[in-house]
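>> received
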Amino acid sequence: MAAPQPTDTERKRAPSKRALATRKRVFDAAEKVFAARGFDGATIRDIAAEAGEPVGTIHHHGGGKEALFHRTVARRATPLSEARLKALGVLKRENQVTLETLLDAFMRPIFELSDTDPGWRAYARLVAFVSADDRWREISAECFDPTAELFLAELGALLPETPRPALAEGFVFSVSAMLALLTSQGRIAALGGGAAPDKEQLDHLLRFSAAGLKARG
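>> returned
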């Protein structure tokens, strides 16, 4: 599926502050509805109701349902990738790359972003949907694979005896656990009679994931 292209109107003039605010409201609503109901369960009318906008406004800013889903996933992919690559760059400059610090550079940014904007938790559900459904393989390739490939290369340098398929398997397991932690803390609390603070849980996840990658080698 090709990336949605800007309309002629979008190319001709910069949007006003009002238009930008409406656009943000549309995509925030799309993110919330898609995260709650999945692609198949969501409708444009649901998104319009959540945004408090006419259906025509949703189509104007997002296109059809599939294009809107694509754009909603892509919206946060760039800042997330930039935060991860910035963290990786610091590790490499300081010669501090280990399994745990590498995983930390990949995972911690989305937790930090979610501290200031709860929408990132809904976004994590969208990423989980995209990762689990082959329909969205092109979205994954566009939005997530370039950064994932860089981190996999670093994992390969740390674990040179581990075959690439095993590295990919361990990496995907780790990312799946990260998404589960972002979206399922209530379940952890229900089963465990309470949950540790986010930072402690993330530290536990990093150790868990690093141990799994070492064992897989």
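>> The chain has a mean pLDDT of 91.
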